[in-house]
Design a protein that fits this description.
This protein is an alpha+beta fold. The protein contains 7 helices and 18 strands. Bound molecules: pyridoxal-5'-phosphate (PLP).
């Protein structure tokens, strides 16, 4: 099959234990995983093996100095049962952009995509059949040098594991504009999917939740005036019929869902503007009754509608989600592509060859 990636199948598939109608969220892992090792100058020993623990040295660099990056993507099953990936080459490029920022080695994009095909092909039976559900895919890379002291690592592991997730239903979320903590600043690591960004965001999120909100809306770190993202999603607004999203400035993650939504909406003739989104402009639009939609965008939820945004003593209420015409249209198109019900004219959906299942 592949000269570069060896495959060791499990002899003991855990698939019979999975109840597809009650998938434990984020806690189900498929039978196989991919591993490759970087030895200081090249990637080697690329292999697919049964899913299981790995052992790391206590001095493992990533645990101390945070050289760790990841991706999040999904494989789905078409309505007639064929496995497929969504824009895999964009994820391959993005993990290398993250790697560059964190002084980590590139991972060959063709090897990344090949590994995805083999892994998803082998564990295709783990892709839940229900529309809206998917096989979540987690590629990641971390430094594993055994050494005291900060310097770029020499040794890295690149791994991919997967796990089935049920349909992600997001009830409309209430947001608090975060005015104390900062997720990212231009020149920082916010544009990389670097592990530390998420650890650093937990406290603000927990405090917002304790105050009765669902998520934080991240603001710029200089003036706390320009909107960045919502939680771990990009953010979109519809103001007086026009679609607006914060422009990427080095502190905002370049979401693939964000890119897909902008492309879909522009093709349909909507005006989509990437710009600095000033909180005062949102407040004015809200007071004038022109803030029509607001939603988060990311791989997990595709679209997460927003019901309310609180900034200091200002409360911006959004119309009911049923009135979110533009969000609804973008979501239907992306989910339609993922289920094969919408014809893919952009080459975003990549079919995967199903391989002999595990455990035979
Ligand atoms: C992953 C991520 C997103 C969404 O990116 P997608 O490619 O659409 O999944 C947005 N913001 C942050 C901070 C993220 O980590």
């Amino acid at each position: 099959m592949s000269a570069r990636i060896s495959i060791t199948r499990t002899s003991n598939s855990r698939l019979p234990d999975l109840d597809f109608d009650n998938i434990p969220f984020g806690a189900a892992f498929s039978d196989h995983m991919f591993i490759a090792e970087y030895n200081g100058n090249k990637w080697e020993n690329a292999r697919i093996v049964p899913f299981g623990n790995i052992s790391v040295h206590p001095a493992c660099f990533a645990l101390h100095y945070g050289q760790a990056i990841f991706e999040g993507m999904k494989a789905s099953k078409s309505h007639d049962g064929k496995p497929m990936l969504f824009r895999p080459e964009m994820h391959a490029k993005r993990i290398n952009a993250s790697a560059q920022r964190m002084c980590m080695p590139d991972f060959p994009e063709d090897l990344f995509v090949e590994a995805l095909h083999l892994l998803v092909g082998l564990d295709h039976a783990w892709i839940p059949p229900q529309e809206g559900s998917a096989l979540y895919i987690r590629p990641f890379m971390f430094a594993c040098d055994e050494y005291f002291g900060v310097r770029p690592g020499d040794k890295y592991l690149f791994m991919i594991y997967t796990g089935p997730v049920g349909p992600y239903y997001s009830k409309p979320v209430r947001l608090r504009a975060e005015l104390e903590y900062v997720r990212a600043v231009p020149g920082g690591t916010g544009e990389a999917k670097a592990a530390g960004n998420y650890g650093g965001a937990i406290l603000a999120t927990e405090k917002a939740k304790a105050a009765g909100f669902d998520q934080v809306m991240w603001m710029d770190g200089h003036e706390f005036r320009y909107v960045q993202e919502v939680g771990t999603m990009n953010i979109f607004f519809v103001i007086d019929g026009k679609v607006v999203t914060p422009k990427t400035d080095g502190s905002i993650l370049k979401g693939i869902t964000r890119n897909s939504i902008m492309t879909i909406l522009r093709e349909r003739g909507y005006e989509v503007e990437e710009k600095l989104v000033d909180i005062h402009e949102l407040i004015a639009a809200s007071e004038a009754g022109k803030l029509q939609e607001a939603f988060g965008a990311g791989t997990a939820a595709v679209i997460a509608p927003i019901s309310e945004i609180v900034y200091k003593d200002k409360v911006m209420k959004l119309p009911p989600v049923e009135a979110f015409k533009i969000a609804g249209l973008a979501k239907a198109e992306i989910n339609g592509l993922r289920s094969g019900r919408v014809v893919d004219e952009r080459g975003w959906v990549v079919p995967v060859q199903a391989l002999e299942p595990a455990g035979v």
